[in-house]
Amino acid sequence: MNSEQSTAPERGDFIREIVAADLREGRVKGVITRFPPEPNGYLHIGHAKAICIDFGVARDFGGRTNLRFDDTNPVKEEQEFIDGIEADVRWLGFDWGKHLYFASNYFDQLYEWAVYLINAGKAYVDDLTADEIREHRGTLTDPGRNSPYRDRSTAENLDLFERMRAGEFPDGARVLRAKIDMAAPNINLRDPVMYRILHASHPRTGDKWCIYPTYDYAHGQSDAIEGITHSLCTLEFEIHRPLYDWFIENLPVPARPHQWEFARLNITYTVLSKRVLKRLVDEHYVRGWDDPRMPTIAGLRRRGFPASGIRDFVTEVGVAKADSTVEMAMFEHVIRDVLNRKALRRFAVLSPLKVVIENYPEGQTEEMDVPNSPENPDAGTRHVEFGRELWIEREDFMEEPLPKFFRLAPGREVRLRSAYFITCKDVVKNSAGEVVELRCTYDPATRGGDSPDGRKPKATLHWLSAANAVLAEVRLYDYLFTRPDPGADGDLFADVNPASETVLQGCMLEPALAATPIGETVQFERLGYFCPDLDSSPERLVFNRTLTLKDGWAKAQARG
RNA sequence: UGGCGCGUGGCCUAAUGGUAAGGCACCUGACUCUGGAUCAGGGGAUUCUAGGUUCGAGUCCUAGCGCGCCAGCCA
Hints:
By secondary structure, this protein is α/β, with parallel strands linked by helices. The chain has 3 domains: 3-262, Rossmann fold, CATH 3.40.50.620; 274-344 and 472-559, CATH 2.40.240.10; 351-462, CATH 2.40.240.10. The protein is 26% helix and 23% strand. The chain has 13 helices and 25 strands. Helix 2 crosses helix 11 (307-317), helix 7 (215-226) packs across helix 8 and helix 11 (307-317) packs across helix 12 (328-342). The protein binds one RNA strand through helix 5, strand 6, helix 7, helix 12 and strand 19.
């Protein structure tokens, strides 16, 4: 995925146009981008957009992409997240080769450069507390005031900074700040903090450091060290660019990376904020970061959404600078498009209703040939056992059919897919009046699903032989939130959809489905796309519904 | 209120000064052994507003309005 020698697209999104121009006009000789996650949680589909852009742009111009962890805050970061993020990027289909880096690799260099700035009179140690610093910063409209420690001598700054590093001071006692302009209209330029004291051990550097660089100080220089030509990120960092540029211009860095910002992804009926996702996990609204309802990469994977579909979605959405919220329907459309072409068809009955074929010989079975994929004849056919006792979907029968209901009803004939036409002769009920069994007859002349006399039933049902269907649990998923704009009028957590998961027991599957590998999504005919859950085992099959099929009947019903 | 950015059908995106285009969604119809898929068609935009430059403006200029982001020792 990263080694294609391709030519630049003649016209792409605004970022690709910039890159093409930089190449054409000789500002850069090649293209190196980077994907820079902080390992403080799991990646979500918003990150997938960034990943596709970072790796996609480099690939389109024959360049390369580094995976660099921006691990500058050890109190929030964990090895678990590093591992998870690597796995997610890889699963999405991207390869950083040997270019795996960590901002923490540059801690020594960053420290040296901090000293360089102190010597240049452009950084100072501040003894103000966090509250005092905030107070001195001013507001959006009022300029800030200089710290009383702003004009310390270089010698004193050097001494204090060295002692900060040596661990002489407790957390929060002092910080190193860039000396820029406390009256700058851009608040990021009001003497931003470069280093803070954090007596915390780091997943990578252990206890070597007790002072850590801030993201603002570390990011641009890390890009410079790696020779990143185009530092792509989301819009909220736009206002920080002048600060990155200030560091780059005032430090003897080996290269001058340029940052370009694009709008982050938003999708209706879900939320793409690490902070909120973490709360959903911590407060048990979901079972974990990889819960199939989560918009995390791990959740999407577990839910059965193919990586290629996620990539296609990002392409479909495009890259621009205007804030936008994409409808979930667009995501689902792209996923269905991929799955319709790729997914093998299988039979499964989620809510089984017994059917007895009265005129079918007792004890007889047949192997029916059923296509694996009508979209792709090369996928061949498989055998599905037919017998006297069958399961059909409870919803496929109505004792008193509504006007536009085409499926089975007393006296009506329907087709069982790739099998026979059957006609409902009788309805068996229990003492509560519930339908528990249908007595039907079949037409032996319709074997395979076609009638020699040209009869065409208005409905075709999926079915399973009661004798060999296997039992499974099936989990149905719906939107995580009840409204397209969760939290828009108040508490976001009050908008969590209480019916986002429905667990069905006693579902019947085609026996072959028991061997479906994790990671494969199949279509249960007429029902939707499903995949085995991580909880699934040969002893206890568990399937997730990835997505339903588009359902005109359900839509008409909902419309009334 | 200061700074930065952004305003194109319900949603996303295109146009590179020359007849506002495409996808999603929605609505018809055709076809169909998945009420799926596919195919054909349809409705829907005074390009935020007002001025200006120009033979010609979604695009350039000015002003206004609206929205987003920034006052972490988070990223």
